[in-house]
Amino acid sequence: MRVLGIETSCDETGVAVYDTAAGLRAHALHSQVALHAEYGGVVPELASRDHVRRLLPLVRQVLAEAGLRPADLDGVAYTAGPGLVGALMVGAAAGRALAWALDVPAVAVHHMEGHLLAPMLEDPALKPPFVALLVSGGHTQLVQVRAVGDYELLGETLDDAAGEAFDKTAKLMGLPYPGGPELARLAERGRPGRFRFARPMTDRPGLDFSFSGLKTQVLLAWQGSDQSGQTRADLARGFEEAVVDTLAIKCARALDRTGADTLVVAGGVGANRRLREKLQALAAERGARVRFPRPAFCTDNGAMIAFAGALRLQAGQREPAAVTVTPRWDMASLPAV
């Protein structure tokens, strides 16, 4: 089954073709970072309009790279939520229209399920059950995965997501947009130990997270410092270490609670080098294993949507002709495959 995947949940237009017999055939991504940079964040209306401009040319490009014609497709998958409603509507309308025109089934994909399953895209041996850490700009969740579509939320952030905290902390220190990756790069030059911030909610039981207070700690430290370039790097290092340690502590607790021996990490923050090293060391100490998608598939992309959609299309899931999206969508409500 050859499935076209479309991702337009926020500020990246992603398209891919996944073949259940041959794997990923082709994928392409257009980022809107330059478009939104002057505003310091994503402007929803501008995001939607850019998806309209970019989507169909990317579909043509990906089909050409895969050596396929539209008629060779067996199904279409598109992100239906969660995300920005206008951006979601662009991908859903285009995906549903393509499926109707080609007389092939279409399936709506949950954006976070796409992230969760992304490590399986290139690792056929990886199968549930496992614990998943979904960590991005919009979500920080620990999920017990019993099967595809059978998910139990173990813990989530009570305020800012980890990626959101990275972005906001970078902004208060004057780093350019997008702040999270800039802060992580700056932290590479930081000296360990000069600034040590709290590891929030690790002194109490439970698997929920809270990162908003870290921003305040960094702000106070920044305002009381000499604000030199090295101090900025040292603060970035201290902040990053606090977030990474917190995530690792909660992951260890989740593995203990569930008895799982596999941890899957997905989402944009999953590309963070320090987080990868920390969780790999954690897994090695426990005799467990940790799996990440390649960095390009940590951020939003069409490949994860094509793969997740292929699994659901193979299981017989289909969408009616109506175009609908769900900007707020609980992943626990998904049907099992």
From TrEMBL:
Q: Which GO terms describe its biological process?
A: tRNA threonylcarbamoyladenosine modification
EC number(s) given by UniProt: 2.3.1.234
Q: Where does Fe cation bind?
A: 111, 115, 300
Give the protein's cofactors.
Answer: Fe(2+)
Question: Cofactor note from UniProt?
Answer: Binds 1 Fe(2+) ion per subunit.
Q: Could you tell me the keywords of this UniProt record? A: Acyltransferase, Cytoplasm, Iron, Metal-binding, Transferase, tRNA processing
Listed InterPro entries: ATPase_NBD, Gcp-like_dom, KAE1/TsaD, Peptidase_M22_CS, TsaD
Principal location: cytoplasm
Alphabetically, the GO molecular function entries are: iron ion binding; tRNA N(6)-L-threonylcarbamoyladenine synthase activity
Question: By its UniProt entry, which Gene3D superfamilies does this protein fall under?
Answer: 3.30.420.40
User: Which cellular compartments is it found in?
Assistant: Cytoplasm
According to its UniProt record, which reaction does this protein catalyse? L-threonylcarbamoyladenylate + adenosine(37) in tRNA = N(6)-L-threonylcarbamoyladenosine(37) in tRNA + AMP + H(+)
Q: Which residues are substrate-binding?
A: 134-138, 167, 180, 272
What are the record's GO terms for cellular component? cytoplasm
Q: What CDD domains does the record point to?
A: ASKHA_NBD_TsaD_bac
Q: Where is the Gcp-like domain?
A: 25-307
The family classification in the record reads: Belongs to the KAE1 / TsaD family.
Q: What does the UniProt function comment say about this protein? A: Required for the formation of a threonylcarbamoyl group on adenosine at position 37 (t(6)A37) in tRNAs that read codons beginning with adenine. Is involved in the transfer of the threonylcarbamoyl moiety of threonylcarbamoyl-AMP (TC-AMP) to the N6 group of A37, together with TsaE and TsaB. TsaD likely plays a direct catalytic role in this reaction.
Listed name of the protein: tRNA N6-adenosine threonylcarbamoyltransferase
Q: Could you read off the lineage of the organism from its UniProt record?
A: Bacteria, Pseudomonadati, Pseudomonadota, Gammaproteobacteria, Lysobacterales
